[in-house]
Design goal:
The protein is α+β, with helices and mostly antiparallel strands and 522 residues long. The relative contact order is 0.08. It is 54% helix and 11% strand.
Length: 522
């Protein structure tokens, strides 16, 4: 059967453009189906539904003649939903939960973890020669019982006798239906082997086989038992019964709790902690003030220096302007994280270039004194940020209408009056949105703080790992526990992230309103 003729493709066949579109959609569908299957395997139903919706929308948009505008905006819209809307929504959800250390998972997963973590070897149970085997991609154990019977099983299949096994020196060397792993293969999967638990029988009370050396297996049972009917956890060694509480933990009558809990909604507790708990409220106030000061001073200093250089290099009488401009923007060409790290070494108290060479061996604590550390942060940020301001001010100055400036000179306005009444207002109209974005960037300039000072020096009177040069975003990072200096508390960190968002959004809205008033004046 011949394909339908299409204009531009010869006598028969599809057009090249249609074929390219078909290939691209096929690739998108393939990736989408992979993501759907991965979400199905992980039982992430929300992600699965979102991927199905995006796939259907993509196919409808690119195969429908009535969706021409959507063909162009769908990729950007999809990325916006995935990387912005979803992230913001999920952060908002986490802010109202107790997500963090001890509350990382669901209740079902917490119960399973408690049962596993409280396992003990059954007293008097024999040790059995053990061999690590695989059934397809599934790891398992094969043991030789004391009466000589070979049994094998996996995490999902309890031990069962297997006939036809080859046994040498009391250890299984070959097993029908299974593949015996060599020693090198066992080493490659050592963590999986030590984490594996193979049930002894269908009854969980009989325990499971575990090993530490991949050669000998022991029977372990949990000291905790879970009763699904009453939703209680009982310690078989003490007889204490634990029941679920509102904080996502199993709690005994005397108030003691089991170490592993689950995520639950806690309402505004994280916000109350951020502003009411002395451990966080005190440092939060200091850090908030410093964050505003850092952002405002950074924008003002970089803008003024950049503007000054732009005016100087915009003078046609200055020779070598191109060379000077190239040299000025060199700091902007260096990655910010690398430049901050280099300055951290240059400002080192003991062997830094600034102290050793420029200051003749002085021992100035640039990064360990609270005041000097803040000055160092502002100075390094000035060095990193003024080239950007120089570029935008140069572009704004060169785009000013010459006829307006010429008219001012004809009317008798001097240089200062022309600058104050015409040049500066027009310059601010062009640069104000960029100044607002620069403020938002510096308000969340995590890279500079983390690479230069790490937030230090630390507060002497704070019980949490926060310091004098921490800004709100680095405080969020420390509170989240991702740097390893504190217990993980994603709920509190997300609540602080929302506070940052509200502050930046409010200031940006007010600043943009002021920008519109400047445009009206201009």
């Amino acid at each position: 059967m011949s394909l339908p003729a299409t204009r531009g493709s010869g006598r028969t066949g599809w057009s090249p453009g249609f074929l390219v579109k078909l290939v691209l959609i096929a690739l998108v569908d393939a990736l989408g189906v992979y993501a759907v299957l991965a979400a199905w395997g992980a039982e992430s139903w929300g992600l699965l539904a979102a991927m199905v919706a995006l796939l259907l929308a993509a196919n409808w948009a690119y195969f429908s003649k009535r969706a021409l505008p959507l063909k162009y905006i769908l990729p950007g819209l999809a990325f916006l939903l995935v990387y912005q809307v979803y992230v913001v929504a999920y952060t908002g959800y986490v802010a109202f939960t107790n997500y963090g250390d001890g509350h990382n998972s669901t209740k079902e997963q917490a119960i399973e973890a408690l049962l596993v973590q409280n396992e003990r070897r059954v007293e008097g149970s024999p040790s059995s020669p053990l061999t690590v085997v695989t059934q397809g991609d599934t790891l398992g154990f094969a043991i030789v019982s004391p009466d000589g019977v070979v049994e094998a099983g996996t995490a999902d299949e309890p031990l069962a006798p297997v006939g036809g096994a080859a046994v040498e020196a009391g250890r299984v060397t070959a097993l029908p239906g299974y593949e015996v792993l060599e020693y090198a293969e066992v080493l490659e999967r050592q963590q999986e082997v030590t984490d594996l638990r193979v049930p002894v029988s269908e009854d969980p009370a009989d325990g499971s086989i575990r090993t530490q050396d991949a050669r000998t297996g022991y029977v372990f049972t949990s000291t905790l038992t879970y009763d699904e009917a009453s939703d209680t956890m009982t310690d078989t060694t003490t007889g204490v019964t634990y029941t679920p509480n509102d904080d996502g933990q199993f709690e005994a009558a005397d108030g003691t709790t089991l170490p592993v809990g689950w995520r639950v909604l806690v309402g505004l507790d994280n916000f109350v902690t951020a502003f009411g708990d002395d451990r966080y409220a005190g440092p939060f106030g200091k850090i908030l003030v410093w964050t505003f000061a850092f952002a405002v001073v950074s924008v003002a200093s970089t803008f003024l220096l950049g503007l000054f250089l732009a005016i100087a290099f915009n003078d046609a009488r200055l020779r070598g302007r191109r060379v000077y401009r190239t040299l000025v923007i060199l700091p902007y060409a260096i990655p910010g994280f690398l430049a901050a790290l280099l300055w951290s070494g240059l400002l080192n108290r003991s062997y830094g270039f600034v102290n050793e060479v420029l200051l003749g061996g002085a021992q100035i604590p640039w990064l360990t004194d609270p005041v000097l550390a803040k000055l160092a942060v502002l100075g390094v940020n000035l060095w990193l940020g003024f080239p950007y301001m120089f570029l935008i001010c140069t572009g704004a100055l060169q785009s000013l209408p010459g006829d307006v400036l010429e008219a001012a000179r004809i009317d008798g306005a001097g240089r200062w009056r022309t600058w104050r009444s015409i040049t500066l207002p027009l310059l601010l109209v062009a640069t104000a949105p960029l100044l607002i974005s620069s403020f938002a960037f510096n308000f969340n300039n995590f890279t500079l703080i983390y690479m230069l000072t790490g937030g230090g020096p630390r507060f002497d009177d704070a019980s949490v790992p926060l310091g004098h040069t921490d800004i709100l975003i680095s405080m969020v990072y420390s509170v989240s526990g991702l740097d390893g200096t504190a217990a993980k508390d994603y709920g509190l960190a997300s609540a602080l992230s929302i506070v940052i968002f509200v502050v930046v959004a409010t200031i940006s809205a007010l600043a943009f309103r002021r920008t519109r008033s400047l445009e009206e004046i201009a």
